[in-house]
Amino acid sequence: MSEKFSTVEQQASYGVGRQLGEQLAANSFEGLDIPAVQAGLADAFDGKDSAVSMQNLQLAFTEISRRLQQAQEEAAEATIAEGNSFLEDNAKRDGVFVTESGLQYEVLTQGNGDKPTYESTVRTHYHGSFISGDVFDSSVVRGQPAEFPVSGVIAGWTEALQLMNVGSKFKLYVPYHLAYGERGAGASIPPFSTLIFEVELLDIV
């Protein structure tokens, strides 16, 4: 048992604090003052009057919300600009095709099997990364091909798969509007991300 928190009550109390701290860390803002948080927690628990008026609390919350929104908008603009710059330069390279939608792709291996349709289900191996080169997902690394309907994936994949013959391997450069858009995908893919995939079409199932 911990020497600092030796009783069950102390350890449980510490656990409550840990949980609150983890929630705060996941939803923090620049300038968050932990002593002020502790003071507010203690005052509320003890039933004391608020040290800050409700009017000032509301003004503070509104201002912090405005700052967070501004920071998100600035981050989104930077991500979009970085992606657009990358795609603009990439489109000039030999061997890169650009479709009407804005999807870019290279043919790494040209297969000679059938092409899937929008209604097909396919088996693929893929390797997904950001334009920085950091990998966010890979069936190759897992050693397990993925099966899914052509209509059930991001728009860039849906379009590209219908261009591929079984046995083909394409490298896709997917603008954010053909990927996960302005919402991103959970914690792994931020909003407005341009993505790169190497996709091997193994079979139509």
From TrEMBL:
Keyword Isomerase attached: yes
Keywords: Coiled coil, Isomerase, Rotamase
Enzyme Commission number(s) from the entry: 5.2.1.8
Reactions it catalyzes: [protein]-peptidylproline (omega=180) = [protein]-peptidylproline (omega=0)
InterPro entries: PPIase_dom_sf (IPR046357), PPIase_FKBP_dom (IPR001179), PPIase_FKBP_N (IPR000774), PPIase_FKBP_N_sf (IPR036944)
One Pfam family named in its UniProt record: FKBP_N
GO biological process: protein folding
Domain PPIase FKBP-type: 119-205
Cross-referenced SUPFAM superfamilies: FKBP-like
Superkingdom, natural source: Bacteria
Coiled coil: 54-81
One annotated GO molecular function: peptidyl-prolyl cis-trans isomerase activity
Similarity comment: family membership: Belongs to the FKBP-type PPIase family.
Protein name in UniProt: Peptidyl-prolyl cis-trans isomerase
Organism taxonomic ancestry: Bacteria, Pseudomonadati, Pseudomonadota, Gammaproteobacteria, Alteromonadales
